[in-house]
Amino acid sequence: MAIEPLHRWDLSPDEARALQRELAARVDATRALGPCRRIAAADVSYNKGDDRLFAAVVVVEAGTFEVVERSGLVAKAGYPYVPGLLSFREAPPVLEAFDRLADRPDVLLCDGQGIAHPRRLGIASHVGLWLGIPTVGCAKSLLCGSFDEPGPDRGDRSPLIHKKERIGTVLRTRSRVSPVYVSPGHLCDFEGAERLVMETTGKYRLSTPIRLAHDFVNELRRQGGAGGST
DNA sequence: GCGACAG
DNA sequence: ATCTTGTCGC
């Protein structure tokens, strides 16, 4: 199951933004999210003065959160961090890690925005187009848009709006704790995105699969942080 | 022109 | 994202 390349990654910032506008037109954020048995989450980590990125994808069983499979790797960063262009830096290694999975999960959660992006193509949407599976963006902070502060209890939510358009949901996953910013990546609607995040969140602020991916990728970074593998 | 700006 | 100690609160 090889991933068919959609486009090149070595683009100038202006070219990258133009491509995002084209790709955003192909994103489907109206599809209802079906039952998800195998849930995956991806995350990326790196050290400050190092040009290597550590990427990981963790797959868990719905309900029990039992880890079914994990995929991790180290790769050279091919793009700098530019607000709004995060996927050009982190998507390549995430796609590579995903491609190494033995079995395809039903949905992929990404640590970042979905369509809640200035040009409606956050990393979750971008990766969703490449993979052709449902993806959901769950970010810890806001990139763009405005909203009314959601209620203080777990489950309380408020629509995220940008330029008169609905782009996501500000969701309180834990009472009295800062909310997370949820938005459809691809092949998923607002309700499905909210439901997936709520159903995968327990005693912590972040979705369990995302936390597991975060822990795993940091484990890889701290362990392989000194030198390469050559 | 000024401020904001996922990870 | 990462660099870092203590500290407030349940």
UniProtKB/TrEMBL annotation:
It holds the Pfam family Endonuclease_5. GO terms for cellular component: cytoplasm. Keywords: Cytoplasm, DNA damage, DNA repair, Endonuclease, Hydrolase, Magnesium, Metal-binding, Nuclease. The keyword Iron does not apply. The record marks 81 as: Interaction with target DNA. It catalyses: Endonucleolytic cleavage at apurinic or apyrimidinic sites to products with a 5'-phosphate. Its cofactor is Mg(2+). GO terms for biological process: DNA repair. GO terms for molecular function: deoxyribonuclease V activity; magnesium ion binding; RNA endonuclease activity producing 5'-phosphomonoesters, hydrolytic mechanism; single-stranded RNA binding. InterPro entries: Endonuclease-V. It is an enzyme of class 3 (hydrolase). It is found in: Cytoplasm. The keyword Membrane does not apply. DNA repair enzyme involved in the repair of deaminated bases. Selectively cleaves double-stranded DNA at the second phosphodiester bond 3' to a deoxyinosine leaving behind the intact lesion on the nicked DNA. HAMAP family: Endonuclease_5. Belongs to the endonuclease V family. This is Endonuclease V. It comes from Tautonia plasticadhaerens. The gene is nfi.
